[in-house]
Amino acid sequence: MTPAAARETMTKDAAPDSARSLPLSQVIELVKQNPGKTSRELADLAGKDRFAMARRLPEVAQGVDAAVMKGEARVCRITSSRALTWWPNA
User: What is the pLDDT of residues 63-88, one digit of tens each?
Assistant: First the structure.
């Protein structure tokens, strides 16, 4: 196996586990209950991995019938950095 293929396999094996532990339906409900939060704030509220939340939010914001949409960036209350906000899509 080439080094690149080995890295890809490790990434595929490691990354999705935390994302899979965060169902899309849970992400959607969390945004509906907490509109205007950053991904880090939502992860903190859910007690989930911030990276998993950051991966899942764009998934539920895709397509014409997306359940969630990106909002304006603002300073995150946890990281003190500018970050996108997430809103339920009406």
Answer: 888 999 999 999 999 999 999 999 99
Give 28-49 pLDDT, tens digit per residue. 999 999 999 999 999 999 999 9
Vertex 21 angle, CA 16 and 26, to 5°? 120
Q: Any idea what DSSP says for residue 23?
A: -
- Two tokens at 31? 């945004």
The CATH class of 3-88 is: mainly alpha
Q: Phi/psi class of residue 40: alpha, beta or left (left: φ > 0; alpha: ψ in -120 to 50)? A: alpha
Torsion angle of C-alpha atoms 78, 86, 13, 20, degrees rounded to 10 = 110
Rounded CA-CA distance 65/21 in Å is 24
User: What is the pTM assigned to this prediction?
Assistant: 0.77
